[in-house]
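Action item from last week, closing it out:
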Amino acid sequence: MLEINQLHKEYGRITAVNELSLRVPRGSVFGLLGPNGSGKTTTLGMVLGVIRPTRGSFRWFGELPTPQQRKRVGAILEKPNFYPGFSARKNLELVAMIKEKGRDRIDAVLRQVGLYERQHDPFRTYSLGMKQRLAIGSALLADPEVLILDEPTNGLDPAGIADIRELIRDIAAMGKTIILASHLLDEVQKVCTDFAVLQQGHLIHTGPVAGQEQEVVFELDAPDQEGLLEVLPLVPGYLSHQQEDAYVSLTVASGTLPEQINAFLAERSLFLSHLSVHHRTLEQQFMEILSQHA
């Protein structure tokens, strides 16, 4: 859907994006992660044609960018910005006029973003979450193939974040490709299929979200601590272990079940008094990735 090749952007002595190459699969929900100043918004600005690259190139739909292709991409790069005294419907009518689109999709879009019942209320009376949903609705008005969202849940309360999360899932279920820039890693893990990590303009990691959980950490305790420590390297799927204050931390390959560990130890007359499992989150992996490239 989107192919970026050696894209580079400099502002004087500052390099915002450094020789970035990246591919966004068609039909994916692609998370673009990174701390503030990592180059996420600059990258999105370049592929949308609002920021001129210093060098490098990108292709939409397998072709070099054209104004006609840009119409196939919906985007929100800034905070929601509509006429405060106008209703949601009136604001969408203006968007349709600017985009030279008919008004026939307004009802469907208002229903999709959950604002149909509030369509005649002034924009200024909306909560931040409702304003964000209207912004997503305006991006969907032209029925784009790709939707780009820059920090769509920024500043929202937990209920607002959950609403946007479900809306993103609904849009993805329609077969649209979504590119989502965010620093809320837990939310990215819940909605994205693929992700990339940027740091100081460099791409330092990319891959599928589902494939990131390659290991699981168990907390173990047993009356016979010495015997437990001796046999842990023989546990199926063993990767490493570490003695903590109150328990032993055992890291094993993903897919290793707690009952397998319990049975393995019981066969050797080692009976656990404590066993709990801790799956590594995307946030933990993200911090590890950043620390490796510090």
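Closing note: The chain has a mean pLDDT of 88.
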